[in-house]
Structures are given as C-alpha cells and as structure tokens.
Amino acid sequence: MSLDSQVAALLRDQITRIISGTIFLSFGLAACAIVAIRRRSGARLVIWLGIWSAMFGANELLSLRAITAVLPPLLQAAPPYLTTAIGYLLVVVGSLAFLELAIGALRIFLKGVILAGLAIAVAGFAIFMATGSEDRLTPPNNLLAACSLLVLTTVVAVPRLSRKFMVLPNRGVLAAGTLVFSIEALMANVANPLHLPTLHILDSLGFAAFLVSLLYVAVQRIFASEHRLLAIESELEIARQLQFSILPTSIPEVSNMRIAASYLPMTAVAGDFYEFLPVDQHRAGFLIADVSGHGVPAALIASMIKVAAQSVTAWANDPAEVLRRLGTILSGQLRGQFVSAAYLWVDTESCQARYSAAGHPPLLCWRAADGALTRIESNGLLFGVRTDADYPVRDIPLGPGDRFLLYTDGVVEPENASGESFGDRRLEQIMREDRSRPASELSERLLAGVRAWQPASMTQQDDITLVVIDVL
After folding, report:
1. Residues 216, 153: one domain?
2. 84 near 128, Cβ under 8 Å?
3. What is the CATH number of the domain that holds 412?
4. CA–CA separation, 53 vs 299, rounded Å?
C-alpha cells in the first residue's frame, strides 16, 4: 500500500478526532486574537480559556498518526515533546482560568494546585528528556487534576459555597457544564483501568460543555464590566460638567486690563483651579491652585477651594491674608493631600500689584519699559503642611504694557520622547517671543508649544491651567 493510501486510511479512522481537535485549536487561537485586538476588563479569563482550548486541540491533533505523518521532516520529532508538555500543563492552565473566578480559600487552593502542577510538569518533562518516557508522572498529574476538579465541582454545585468562594454572575450554567465534564471524566477514569471501551468523542463533548459554560461566565463578566464602565463614564461626564461650573464663567471687566485664562484637565476631572476676585472696575484678585494628584479626589478638593475662595473676598487686597485663610479652611479637609496656590492682586488705579504664593511656581512678569522678564517668587508652605504658615508678600509697581503669567506646573513638566521636560526656559522663551501678542493669543501659543513638545502618541501628563493678565 502506498504512503498516500496509508494516510487516507488513517484519516478515515481518525476524522472525528481531527475535526474536534481543529475546532478546539481554532477556537482557542481566535479567542486569544479577539482579546488581543479588543482589550476588555475581565478578559484574562477568556485568554486562559483560549489557551486551554488551543492546548487541548493541539494535543488531540499531535497525538494522531494521520497528522504527524504529513508534517515536514524537520518537525517529525516535535510532537512527542509538545504532547508531553501539554499533557502535564493542562491542569495548570485550567486552574489559572478558574483562579479568575475564585476568592478566599478557593483562590489559595488553586494557587497550590498550580504550583504542584508546575512542579509535576517540570519533573515529568525532565524525565521524558532523560528517558523518553512520556507518562512516568501522568498518574500523580491525573490525581491532581481529579482532586482539583472534585473540589471545583463541589464549590460550583453548592450555592452557599459558590457565593462564598467564587465571583459568578450566573452559577447555573457553570454548574451544569462542570457537572457534565466531571461525569465524563469519572467514566473515563473508571473505564481505563478496567480496559472498558470508551468513545473518544465523549471526552471532547464533555470538555466542550465545560469550556462553553466557562466562556458564558466570562462573557457575562465582560458585559457587566462594560456596563459598570459606561456608568462610571456617565458619572465622570456629570462630574466634569460640575467642575467646569465652579470655574469662572466670564472674564471680569477691569479698567486698563486684559485677561485670558486656559484650563486643560488631564482626565475628565482635575485638581487645578482658578478664580477671579474682582472688587471694582480698577481692582481684582487672581487665584490659581494645584491639588496634588489627579482625578476625582483632587477634583473634590478643587471644589472645596471654590467655596473657600468665596469666603475670603473681604480680604481680596491682602494676598497673605487670602492664602492664610484658605490654608486654615482647607487644613481639615485635605486628608494627606497638598495644595499649591498663588494669588495676585492688581490695582490699575494706584498702579500697584501684590503677590504671594503657597509652594507654587513663580509668577512671570514681563516689563514693557525695559524688556525684562522677571520670575517673582514669594512662597510660603503648601496648604496641608501646617496651619500657621506665613505667606510673604511682594509689592510690584505696574507700568503700561506689563504682563503677568500665573500657571500650574502642568505647563513646564511635560516631557518629550527623550524624557526632557518642557521647562521654565522654553516657557520664558515663548513669553519673550510673543510679548506683543494679545493675552488670549499668548495663552493659545503656550498650549500649542506644550502639545508640540510632547510626542503625538503620548497623552497629556498633568492638568494645565494658566492665567495671562495684561496691563494696558
């Protein structure tokens, strides 16, 4: 009989196993590919199920002479190594899949099974390499698989235990699949020692029922996670709208002054804050603050600053008193977080400004008279360090064409692909180059400069806020 005839005969005898192995292998590879393309919360269970299915299918195919006979000569020696490794590791991968659903003592038990399975796999493969025996440690490996399956079946089948030791959106489907697989495994383990005939298709059907039940649970978890994510995104959008509502809705009309403000949060909500404290058409205060951290906790503290700022308007002309009172109000609410702040008071009638800060980046001042750019630092302690801090005040004379820039550190800290920060030097360079631009255009130019500095693939690294004040 020719080689082709022999292969055809083998194919006829083993067609069922070839089909089932191909299905399991294809399903496993497809599941892993889908998860890799569309990452979702809770997808690790799908990944382990995909690997488990692919290993089972590959083991089926590689154990068939009809498949190994048509392999290229270079791969003819590979199947025994692969089937030996897969045979020992199936229990490990299955336990890793169940580990995604387990909590408490069951999680500890499964970790023990995984460690024991890895030890058996390493020893079994080493024995195979040394002696050529593929199944020397198969009995202890099967015993480990049987014990773990018995425990898992009991936990899943008993509602009280499943509620205590597993996170399951739907216990019934998994209980049915596990029971079918357990019955099939028990029948196979009884039949083999007694040399009773068995249908190999039952092994595949039992494993398929088990796999489908686990996949059903995994899909339910993914849908539940996405539903929670959509709810969180909806709540964050509401929080974003609320946060923007605490910021000034308009620029105050102050004589001989032009003002521009830009606010660019890193996430939906941010820890940056700014506020205007106008007194009359000649005088106004400008407050800017930066809460440590990002996201919702920082945003909550920023909203507290809004309330606190409204209570200090009576001292708007005294930067030290404004900061001291803000620090006192916030001291009991920060819960270990810190806030930097800066406050600038501008009086165009008396041509004087006053400035003080609490651990904040320096005020930049462009002097039109002599074309000098000055960094003005007058810092006390951050809010949250101590409640009795002093805040020194700098008196600044005003002249026509002078410009002030208040900003948070999100302007100077962004890094390029080489890890180099945007820095004070580039900020000051833009201030000098665009000294004749209106305040609003300078604000846009600064933001464009920061965005251009960062790689296009990199997301914003910090909240950004800046306020530009021009004296006309």
Report:
1. yes
2. yes
3. 3.60.40.10
4. 46
Pair 267, 296: CB distance under 8 Å: no
Quote the domain boundaries for residue 150. Answer: 3-233
**pLDDT reported for residue 446:** 93
**Which pLDDT belongs to residue 13?**
56
Q: In this predicted structure, what is the pLDDT of residue 40?
A: 60
Residues 179 and 30 in one domain: yes
- The total number of residues written for the chain in this structure: 472
Buried b (16+ CB within 10 A) or exposed e, 47-82: bbbbbbbbbbbbbbbbbbebbbeeeeeeeeeebeeb
In a domain, residue 466? The reply is: yes
pTM above 0.70, yes or no: no
Q: With CA atoms as reference, report the closest residue to 313 among 353, 284, 342, 281.
A: 284
Question: Whole-angstrom Cα distance, residue 361 to residue 439?
Answer: 20
- pLDDT of 38 reads 65
Q: Identify the helix (H) or strand (E) that includes residue 48.
A: helix 44-62
Q: Which two tokens stand for residue 69?
A: 């006979």
In a domain, 92, yes or no: yes
How many independent structural domains does the chain possess?
Answer: 2
Asked whether residue 142 falls in the same domain as residue 269, the answer is no
Contact 49, 30 (CB under 8 A): no
- Note whether residue 241 is domain-resident: no
* Residues lower than pLDDT 70 in the chain: 1-13, 38-42, 66, 69-70, 188-200
E strand intervals along 210-338: 257-264, 272-278, 283-291
Of 207, 200, 139, nearest in space to 177 by CA: 207
